[in-house]
């Protein structure tokens, strides 16, 4: 297996810039035919960007890609597919209301003139299903299939397109253990046929189980290629988090004292979240760290009543009623949601209207509303041309401040922040955290979820690590090296 | 920290002033078109500017106008109400039947309006609380309420000898101004004040602009949705009562196709069909514009078949114009 051979796929020195961030900074990846190659890295290490470049969804700013020795230039996902690169995303881009056969040959159905040759399509689909070991019929509707069968359908689709490189983005996130074993055996068969499989996952157990080699990405660069048979988990984790990361300077603050304002006794949401025993005192910022899908967003949404779950919590000692966002707001909870444009703002409405909307009895364009919103907007330093300017025209940082302004105008006891700095540049991030800090100093209890560990260690007083829906460890960021927290984030256990 | 820092260059400032002039153009252009149309009408048909004709025109457009104002509120929340024609006919019949049965006219009017509001609240409530599409709940309303209307009298007109005072409401004049016209203007002004000056008005725009953000901001999204449909039902019922008052008889077949006229006026008036943007003033002007157009056609003797074709073409042209202006505003 580890005979030296020329790689099937090579990506060299890939650079990709987005406004404010450098997603890939000279990343390279080399994958041989017949191997299962794992791609590892923390949140934001550049894994998804690299795979989107491979698929043709993004164009790299620099770098080159060769497939079987020939340069590959994809400008669209169609080009990528035509060249034999197939990416199976976590959310499986299948059309749920169509049948398996229809999905497998979407846009490429065998036809005679304008008529689809249904029988030929069905037969070809059945063959593809057989090759991935599926037991469902090509005429089954995708929606009615269990997740594992849907996953197999996506793989079968890659097969019918004669993919030479198949990228699988965290298939285990949605699969149970037994289903995963089925998918694994299919993956091994495909590799044995001489295809290259790129497997992305956060779970190290799984990676050593299925993978032959692994490339680790960190900060947009590849930091090493490891033979998984001879590499320990600790070595991988070490490569993922790096050793000598600068400690961000923390502002010294007095220890928050007093009784907890928000006491999370026990919160469960289906079988994806089971969290207990987190306290937030007035003036305290409690950080929630975790991988994507670890349950940070779900925990905040459950507390706010935006998703249904079993919530046992206390607010200033009294049981917190959870019946929906309206009740939450009435009790003094405020949520800055993950996606400000879709969930936080009214893009077409003016800045002042946005800032006043949650405060009852305030009508923004009128003087009374103005009097209340103007100082808040000024205090936050929201740069806007006039109170009527539509929020959609502001920069990301200013938009996020308008979301904060909405809650400050109303007044709050607990602030739930979900990934508040996503898409902001460094200056805007610092500015936002300064405002959050000021709110905390005024006695607001803050629960801050972020995938940026450096931000959590710099701004939170306490950091809780969530792992697969459970809160597994609590750290004091002033005395804990960030690497230890990162280790826990990835493995779910303290080093 | 200074107020919106005039020293720093604001990228939004230039955009905004351009946005403002575009807004003015967009809001103003309808008014300009309307005035131009009046000038053309006056030139083509001298009888257009007679008090009698203007009064007639106002009287004819008012009922559609009252309904269109309610429709504006619904569409601002990104909803649609297809049931207004049936609701109006039902209320018109109900008031005639009740008065004929000896119920006091005021009580009969209140009952009819309440019935309209209740019908709207049910359809809106189904859409808000069970997440059914408003298009379907109000389409169901359109058929079943029309059916109820026929059931009231087995399909025959009702009333006939309605009291004089009641007849004044829909057919009376104050000076040269028809009372229904005053009611239309009053409804428009009240709706404009509610939208501009109350929390409820803010919520209407917010729900239409971004439903999910409204929910996560703790707004009573479902109550607001239900309320706008109730208001639409109420105003439709008002139009029905006024028609019965003018005709002195309740017609079960009245107002068929009213929903389309109302929607056309709302959209022509610049309200976004997907919610969040628009003004009742635009609807007001659009209603008058459409009815001047119709009036003009009648005065110059165009056949009603031809009128339908031209009205459709004008609607499309207006939508294209709005889209062009909007795209320029988005840049």
From TrEMBL, chain A:
The keyword Translocase applies. PROSITE patterns: ABC_TRANSPORTER_1, ABC_TRANSPORTER_2. It holds the Pfam family ABC_tran. GO terms for cellular component: plasma membrane. It comes from Thermomonospora echinospora. One of its GO terms (molecular function) is ATP hydrolysis activity. The keyword Acyltransferase does not apply. This is Monosaccharide ABC transporter ATP-binding protein, CUT2 family. InterPro entries: AAA+_ATPase, ABC_carbohydrate_import_ATPase, ABC_transporter-like_ATP-bd, ABC_transporter-like_CS, P-loop_NTPase. It is found in: Cell membrane. Residues 9-244, 248-493 form the ABC transporter domain. PANTHER family: CARBOHYDRATE TRANSPORT ATP-BINDING PROTEIN MG119-RELATED (PTHR43790), GALACTOFURANOSE TRANSPORTER ATP-BINDING PROTEIN YTFR (PTHR43790:SF9). Keywords: ATP-binding, Cell membrane, Membrane, Nucleotide-binding, Repeat, Translocase, Transport. It is a peripheral membrane protein. It comes from the Bacteria.
From TrEMBL, chain B:
InterPro entries: ABC_transp_permease. GO terms for molecular function: transmembrane transporter activity. Pfam families: BPD_transp_2. The keyword Transmembrane applies. GO terms for cellular component: plasma membrane. The chain crosses the membrane at residues 28-46, 66-99, 106-132, 173-195, 219-243, 249-268, 280-299, 305-325. It is a multi-pass membrane protein. This is Monosaccharide ABC transporter membrane protein, CUT2 family. It comes from Thermomonospora echinospora.
């Amino acid at each position: 297996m580890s005979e030296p051979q020329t790689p099937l796929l090579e990506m060299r020195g890939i650079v990709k810039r987005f406004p404010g961030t450098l997603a890939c900074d000279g990343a390279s990846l080399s994958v041989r035919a017949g191997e299962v190659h794992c791609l590892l890295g923390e949140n934001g290490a550049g894994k998804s960007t690299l795979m989107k470049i491979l698929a043709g969804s993004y164009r790299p700013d620099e770098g080159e890609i060769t497939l079987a020795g020939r340069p590959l230039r994809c400008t669209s996902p169609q080009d990528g597919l035509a060249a034999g690169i197939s990416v199976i995303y976590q959310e499986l881009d299948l059309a749920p209301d169509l049948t398996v056969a229809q999905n497998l040959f979407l846009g490429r159905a065998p036809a005679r003139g304008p008529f689809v040759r249904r029988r030929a399509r069905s037969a070809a689909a059945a063959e593809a299903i057989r090759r991935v070991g599926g037991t469902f019929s090509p005429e089954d509707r995708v929606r009615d299939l269990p997740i594992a069968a849907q996953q197999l359908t996506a793989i079968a689709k890659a097969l019918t397109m004669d993919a030479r490189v198949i990228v699988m983005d965290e298939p285990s996130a949605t699969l149970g253990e037994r289903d995963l074993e089925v998918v694994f055996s299919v993956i091994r068969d495909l590799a044995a046929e001489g295809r290259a499989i790129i497997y992305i996952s956060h779970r190290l157990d799984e990676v050593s189980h299925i993978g032959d080699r692994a490339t680790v990405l960190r900060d947009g660069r590849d930091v090493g290629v490891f033979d998984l048979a001879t590499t320990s988990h600790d070595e991988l984790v070490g490569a993922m988090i790096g050793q000598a990361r600068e400690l961000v300077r923390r502002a010294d603050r007095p220890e928050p004292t007093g009784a907890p304002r928000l006491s999370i006794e026990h919160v469960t949401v289906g079988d994806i979240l089971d969290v207990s025993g987190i306290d937030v005192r007035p003036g305290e910022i409690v950080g929630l760290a975790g991988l994507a899908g670890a349950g940070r967003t779900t925990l905040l949404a459950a507390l706010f009543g935006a998703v249904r779950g079993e919530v046992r919590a206390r607010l200033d000692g009294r049981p917190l009623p959870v019946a929906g966002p309206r009740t939450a707001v009435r009790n003094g909870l405020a949520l800055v949601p993950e996606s400000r444009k879709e969930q936080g703002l009214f893009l077409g409405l003016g800045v002042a209207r946005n800032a006043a909307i949650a405060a009852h009895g305030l009508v923004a364009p009128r003087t009374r509303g103005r009097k209340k919103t103007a100082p808040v907007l000024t205090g936050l330093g929201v740069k806007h041309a006039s109170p009527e300017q539509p929020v959609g025209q502001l920069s990301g940082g200013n938009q996020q401040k308008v979301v904060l302004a909405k809650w400050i105008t109303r007044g709050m006891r607990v602030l739930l922040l979900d990934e508040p700095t996503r898409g902001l540049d460094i200056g805007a991030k610092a500015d936002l955290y300064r405002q959050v800090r000021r709110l905390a100093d005024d006695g607001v209890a803050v629960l801050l979820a972020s995938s940026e560990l450096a931000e959590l260690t710099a701004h939170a007083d306490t950091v809780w690590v969530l792992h697969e829906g459970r809160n597994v460890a609590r750290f004091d960021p002033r005395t804990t090296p960030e690497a230890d927290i990162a280790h826990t984030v990835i493995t779910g256990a303290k080093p | 920290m200074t107020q919106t820092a005039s020293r720093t260059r604001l990228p939004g400032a230039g955009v905004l002033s351009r946005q403002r002039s575009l807004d003015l153009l967009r809001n103003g252009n309808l008014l300009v078109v309307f005035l131009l149309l009046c000038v053309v009408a006056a030139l083509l048909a001298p009888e257009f500017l007679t008090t009698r004709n203007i009064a007639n025109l106002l009287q004819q457009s008012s009922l559609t106008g009252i309904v269109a104002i309610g429709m504006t509120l619904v569409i601002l929340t990104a909803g649609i109400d297809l049931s207004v024609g049936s609701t109006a006919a039902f209320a018109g019949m109900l008031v005639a039947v009740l008065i004929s049965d000896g119920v006091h006219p005021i009580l009969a009017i209140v009952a009819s309006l309440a019935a309209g509001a209740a019908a709207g609240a049910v359809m809106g409530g189904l859409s808000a609380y069970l997440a059914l599409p408003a298009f379907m709940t109000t389409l169901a309303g359109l058929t079943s309420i029309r059916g109820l209307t026929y059931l009231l009298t087995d399909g025959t007109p009702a009333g006939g000898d309605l009291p004089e005072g009641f007849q004044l409401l829909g057919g009376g004049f104050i000076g040269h101004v028809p009372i229904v016209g005053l009611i239309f203007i009053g409804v428009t002004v009240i709706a404009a004040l509610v939208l501009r000056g109350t929390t409820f008005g803010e919520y209407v725009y917010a729900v239409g602009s971004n439903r999910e953000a409204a929910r996560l901001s703790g707004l009573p999204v479902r109550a607001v949705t239900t309320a706008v449909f109730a208001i639409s039902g109420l105003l439709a019922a008002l139009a029905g009562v006024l028609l019965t008052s003018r005709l002195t008889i309740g017609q079960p077949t009245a107002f068929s196709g009213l929903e389309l006229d109302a929607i056309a006026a709302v959209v022509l008036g610049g309200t976004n069909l997907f919610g969040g943007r628009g003004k009742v003033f635009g609807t007001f002007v659009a209603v008058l514009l459409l009815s001047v157009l119709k009036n003009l056609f009648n005065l110059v003797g165009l056949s009603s078949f031809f009128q339908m074709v031209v009205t459709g073409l004008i609607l499309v042209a207006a939508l294209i114009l709005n889209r062009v202006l909007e795209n320029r505003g988005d840049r």
